[in-house]
Amino acid sequence: MPQVHEDAIWLKPGQVAERAGVAVSTLHYYESLGLIRSRRTAGNRREYRRDTLRVLAFVRASQRVGIGLDRIKEALGKLPEEGLPTKKDWARISREWRDDLDDRIEHLVALRDRFSNCIGCGCLSLKSCPYSNPDDILGADGHGALRFP
Amino acid sequence: MPQVHEDAIWLKPGQVAERAGVAVSTLHYYESLGLIRSRRTAGNRREYRRDTLRVLAFVRASQRVGIGLDRIKEALGKLPEEGLPTKKDWARISREWRDDLDDRIEHLVALRDRFSNCIGCGCLSLKSCPYSNPDDILGADGHGALRFP
DNA sequence: TCTTGACGTCAAGTGGACTTGACGTAGTCG
DNA sequence: CGACTACGTCAAGTCCACTTGACGTCAAGA
């Protein structure tokens, strides 16, 4: 009987690393932080569940937009310890993250639009356009931005 | 004749720090990197032009969404050394940044939407929905994401 | 004038996110 | 069976973005 190979649920470190586009050392690191989990073979080698790839994709996508590993772990921590996450698990995480992501998107769009508007009015110069009031910017990104990320 | 005070163009470090919501040491640091500039008084104290507040707001807004200081400096470096930036200066920077920001927004929205969809289908489980194919995610965020940020 | 606080410089420390190195073992292939 | 590669652990190193510390100076108010 031929061995199932392509559809194997348990993946080796090298496979995971390559498919997720991260270094094996990064897998160790993430595991040490509790972001991902593995089981061990008789010979003490790690084996990752296939859905670890999803988790890694999620981690990297989140990181990419400036979210820290602690925050990501917090979200992932709401998945069940063992077994597959349920709809309910995801719904819980999702509610929190949506707010966070919505907020980040909002800021990013604001940044982009402010930039676009600056083309039109030549701002960053003093008192030349409605966007040039530093306090407006402070209101949007200043003290608030310090507490928030 | 009374001294103009509120509308002073040149600001002291403490004023800039407070209004921009950063530490004075951060101003020093940014200056050492060439992100902001200052002139000195007779007594060797720094004085910042008022539009430094805009630059700082821009820096922090950009940082917030995961853009590094080197990249930010690169953009700011396209502003003129002395004098106020012109429409043309901004247009040049803006074109490049818009692409960058558009891209980041796109990824963020994709992340959010993937998350939202997961509520509907209970994914992160194996083979349960169109979003669960790890290679799809790899295509979007995997190897590409490593080169790109 | 004296004191207090904001500011100056420079070196070193911190925290996050990994990577590298040293060194020993496990599995696989010819 | 032997060699080679992938993997294991653990400590230390790196890079970025700042912060802290030590110590001296400038400036404004009582």
Describe this structure in words.
The structure is a homodimer of 149-residue chains. With 149 residues, the first copy, chain A, is mainly α. Chain A has one domain (6-133): Multidrug-efflux Transporter Regulator, Chain: A, Domain 2 (Orthogonal Bundle), CATH 1.10.1660.10. In chain A, 58% of the residues lie in helices and 5% in strands. Chain A is built from 7 helices and 3 strands. Chain A has helices at 13-20, 24-33, 52-64, 69-76, 87-121, 134-141, 143-147; strands spanning 10-11, 39-40, 46-49. Chain A has a 3-stranded antiparallel sheet with strand order 1-3-2. The longest helix of chain A is centred in the last third of the chain and has 35 residues, at 87-121. In chain A, 33% of the residues are buried. Chains A and B meet through helix 3, helix 5, helix 6 and helix 7 of A and helix 3, helix 5, helix 6 and helix 7 of B. The structure holds a DNA duplex (30 and 30 nucleotides).
Main attributes?
homodimer; about 150 residues; mainly alpha; Multidrug-efflux Transporter Regulator, Chain: A, Domain 2; three-stranded antiparallel sheet; disordered N terminus; disordered C terminus; DNA-binding
Query: How would you describe the shape of chain A?
Result: elongated
Strands of chain A, total number? 3
Return the domain count of chain A.
1
CATH architecture of chain A: Orthogonal Bundle
Characterize the main sheet of chain A. Answer: 3 strands, antiparallel
For the record, the CATH class of chain A is Mainly Alpha
What is the tally of helical segments of chain A? 7
- CATH T-level fold name of chain A: Multidrug-efflux Transporter Regulator, Chain: A, Domain 2
Helix content of chain A: 55-70%
Oligomer: homodimer
